[in-house]
Write a structure and sequence with these properties.
It contains no helices and 13 strands. Strands 2, 4, 5, 6, 9, 12 and 13 form a seven-stranded mixed β-sheet that branches. The chain is globular. The N and C termini lie far apart (40 Å).
């Protein structure tokens, strides 16, 4: 069974940092494709946050997180990471990772949902 398990969420204060992890099981991310992160806040639509190509050589970010978040992947550990810095209350959401069967982030988008499957998510709350 192909699945992701996200971890690393929690409660932090504005300005602090978190690193989310997305560990794959049942398949090798290095042989599958690009991996993306999405988030969904209560009462709001899903929002694409970032995406990284299979090789890790290409990344994209939404305007809302550009310059604050960094996506990376370790194919040997079968894990993708999202380093989040300078967190804001509006970053509060459930974060989940998704898989694409393309090597590049060609179908990723802030409001595009053409991924193959997703994980259950990890919750991030930014509050003072």
């Amino acid at each position: 069974q192909l699945q992701f398990v996200e971890s690393g969420g929690g409660l932090v204060q504005p300005g602090e940092s978190l690193r989310l992890s997305c560990e794959a099981s049942g398949f090798s991310i290095g042989n599958y494709g690009a991996i993306g992160w999405y988030r969904q806040a209560p009462g709001k639509a899903r929002e694409g946050v970032s995406c990284i190509s299979t090789s890790g050589g290409s990344t994209v970010y939404s305007d809302a997180v550009k310059g604050r978040f960094t996506i990376s992947r370790d194919n040997a550990k079968n894990t993708v990471y999202l380093r989040m810095s300078s967190l804001k209350p509006e970053d509060t959401a459930e974060y989940f990772c998704v898989a694409y069967h393309y090597d590049e982030c060609v179908v990723w988008g802030e409001t595009a949902y053409e991924y193959d499957f997703r994980g259950q998510g990890t919750h991030v709350t930014v509050s003072s």
